[in-house]
Design brief:
Shape: globular
Order of helices and strands: HHHHHHHHHEEEEEEEEE
Number of strands: 9
Oligomer: single chain
CATH architecture of the largest domain: Sandwich
Strand order of the largest sheet: 6-3-8-1-9
Strand content: 15-25%
CATH topology of the largest domain: Jelly Rolls
CATH class of the largest domain: Mainly Beta
Radius of gyration: 25 Å
Amino acid sequence: MKDLNLDETSQGMKAMTTGDRLVAFKQTYAALTYLALIEALIARIDALPAALRGRPLADLLFDSDVTRDNWLRALWYYCQMVKFCPTTTEAMRQAAHSLTERFGISLSDTRDTYAENQAKAEQHEKWITVEGPILAQISTPDQRTLAAWMEDFIQSGKVFGVMLGERGDTIAEADRSAAMTLRGEALGLLTELRTVLRREINARPELPANLDIPIEHHADILWLANWGFFLPPFMEISDTAMCKMPYDVEIIGIMSHYHKLGTKFTVDAWTPTGTTPIYEDDDSAHPKFQEYLPPISLAKGDGIQWTCTWNNTKPKPVGPGKNSTDEICITFALGYPKNTLSFDPIQCNITN
């Protein structure tokens, strides 16, 4: 919530004023007053330049995921080395203890604002300057050093803070002030509406306690992973996998996932009579999420087929794995069972 920007605020308000949520909202007397106010605020926010509305926080999650994984992996790797290696020095043991104390991530850390990330990164950077020579002696599985892994994470924290600062520097002070005023107005209206709705629900027993919308289907993530590929050195190569649906499924969204050697990701709807392209992306760092309205209907026995293309520029082969130096080929599909409320999640792992 601390980093909620105008884009995200607008998206939340739009969710209240469309589809089934709007039908539920209109059951209340509050809608007579607040619906017009919300729609007016949405229009004012959408009229602002993109730089003022801000980049949604969700877009940044992938940027930090790989780096944070490396940070946690580095912490585990170093502490395990100290635990089991018989030749560790006292300085290394002290450094391992300091890593745990200074870099361990708690739940509260995941809620830090960008400015807080930047401030912590600057504090960590001072510590790395002192401990760097020791960390530089420890190799990591990707043929780098523990010092390099830590420096990568520190840099990402600084970039988050700088990113917001640079965005602010390109916007006139008056425009920034107007945007912040509008953001405060929107959040204030939503807070007020929540209080009014709660009072109305308490006073009108005929209203559902949470204005619940009847649930027709439970959506879930379809995990479709190909682990059966091999990337020779200095070669571009593609690999295709296919999973059949165990029951009738409606697909409402797809996102790709592969690592930095990936150059193209395509997904097809497969039936016994042929395939239909439904997704294509070439950005491994910021994969596209594509929605489907109406949904893509797949009958039992139909399937999803996906193809990953990589360009292995390394002098050694690369295989599948969960480390950032490995490669991966996963389709995340959002869907729900067509004929029932819910069903067992679909998880498909291809290994050959």
